[in-house]
Every structure is written in C-alpha cells, then in structure tokens.
Design goal:
The protein has one domain: Dimeric alpha+beta barrel (Alpha-Beta Plaits, 2-Layer Sandwich). The protein contains 2 helices and 6 strands. The strands form 2 sheets. A 4-stranded antiparallel sheet has the order 2-5-1-6, covered by helices on one side. Strands 3-4 form a two-stranded antiparallel ribbon. The two termini are about 15 Å apart. About 15% of the residues are buried.
C-alpha cells in the first residue's frame, strides 16, 4: 500500500455558500470520509483549508494576500488515504462531494516517503 493525498481543487473557491448549503456539503463530506474509513483506507492528517488569512509568496519574495493570485483554482482541502495505486486512490476521490461544483477537481498525488 502507498499513501496518497486527495487534493480538493475549487474553481469556485471565492464564492460563499449559504449556511444550509454548507451543512449539506459537510454531511456529504463526512459520509464520504466514513466510507473510506470503513474500508480501512483513511489516514490521519486531512483537513479543509480556509480561504481567509492566507498569503502567497512568489519567487521574488513578494507577499500577496489570499490564495487566489492569477490562478483559476484554489486548494480547498486534502485527505490522506492509502491505496494500491494512483488509480485506486482516484476511485476513492470520485465520491468526494467537492466534485458537485462545476469545474472543481480532485488531484491525486502519491506521497514520497523517505525510507530509513
């Protein structure tokens, strides 16, 4: 088994959802995570990321407010899972409620673990 990050990429990251929409999305997300945990594939360390109080530092060491800059998408959160392959991790990602947002995506990245 390998470790992967399932990274939630929001094209609509700057939009504010209603409290009702947030409650529905959070329930769907918790149900999705519970399904991965029931398979024994959820690892500790995943979190949502706030769009507030963030900064971007560029190659000139210029600091700008917010994660937005010139990019179309923002990273809204991540989940750590274990899977046999990137394809298996992608199958887990397909159930993420973030994919209900048009243009939103899930990025799958294998975690490079250093052997000691």
């Amino acid at each position: 088994m390998h470790e992967y990050l399932l990274i939630m990429r929001h094209e609509d990251g700057g939009k504010v959802a209603s409290p009702e929409q947030m409650q529905i999305w959070m329930k769907q997300t918790m149900d999705w995570l519970a399904g991965i945990e029931a398979q024994g594939k959820l690892l500790p360390g995943g979190n949502g990321l706030s769009f507030d109080d963030s900064r971007v530092v560029d190659h000139n060491k210029m600091v700008t407010k917010g994660p937005f800059g010139d990019i179309k998408e923002t990273i809204g959160g991540y989940v750590r899972v274990k899977a046999e392959s990137a394809d298996d991790a992608a199958e887990l990602a397909k159930g993420c409620p973030v994919l209900q947002g048009e243009g939103n995506t899930m990025e799958i990245r294998k975690i490079a673990l250093h052997e000691s």
